[in-house]
Amino acid sequence: MKLVTLFIIMISLNSIYSAESNEEIIMNCYINESNVITTKISDKRDEDALASAVYKKSYEKIGWDYLSIATYEKNDKKYNDSSKAYAMGFLEGTLTNERIYSHYKNFHNYFLAEYDSNPQIFQFFENFVFQILEYLREKSTENMDKDPFWEFAHYMYQQIKGLHEGYNISYISQSEKQLSLAQIYMLAASSDMQDIGSYLFRQLPHFQQMTPEELERYETLNSHCSAFVKLAKDYSDIYF
Q1: Rounded CA gap, 129 and 189, in Å?
Q2: In whole angstroms, what is the distance from residue 227 CA to residue 204 CA?
Q3: In what order do the strands lie in the sheet with 51-56?
Q4: Within a domain: residue 1?
């Protein structure tokens, strides 16, 4: 049977908070028989919750925030995997809303600011991303029982959807900070956005006409990833 889930969202008053630096927050997420989602801040994880999260806002002190999310682990099929994926996203969006907003502002200034002078171009770009999401939703719902790839894609979509709705609820009284589902997805797929924008506005370079030196220069200027790689002492594992 396909897991087609409709969520009605209700957020507890004690779940709207302003985390102080280095403060640890534990939030549990629940869903009832009517698919109503609720969240509650507690002093410990609830093993019977749909999902629970521990968030420590410590970036200003140590350079990193800490976020750990776990879903219901008992093997009694109390909750389906679609609900679990949604709840994971919902908790992340609710707890890390300030970081998400800051990240989007940086992302917009880096990738999208050049389109600000023409709102129609940005709308065209956003609509294109919405089409990607709609395709993902339709194909994954249609094929999740037939193909492991589309089953995973379905859970990924539910998690992004939960993140989007959890984020926006946390800013329910600040409409200027709310983001569309497409804008949230742009953050998840930020490494593709530059190429998508170049394709949409016909700015892709002619790779076949490039010399090896020009191609190497293009790759250097347009690649922004880095990684630490470490082998275990006994060469049994590798860490990135």
Answers
A1: 10
A2: 27
A3: 8-9, 36-42, 24-31, 51-56, 66-71
A4: no
Residue 128 is part of which domain span? 8-239
What would the pLDDT profile of 133-169 be if each residue is shown by its tens digit? 999 999 999 999 999 999 999 999 999 999 999 999 9
Interacting residues of 147 by C-beta distance below 8 A, sequence separation 6+? none
Q: Which residues contact 238 (CB under 8 A, 6 or more apart)?
A: 229, 230, 231, 232
Mean pLDDT (whole number) for 42-55: 94
Tell me the Cα Rg of the chain.
20
> The domain spanning residue 208 has which CATH number?
1.10.439.20
Q: Residue type at 4?
A: V
Domain assignment of residue 81, yes or no: yes
Please give the tally of structural domains in the chain.
1
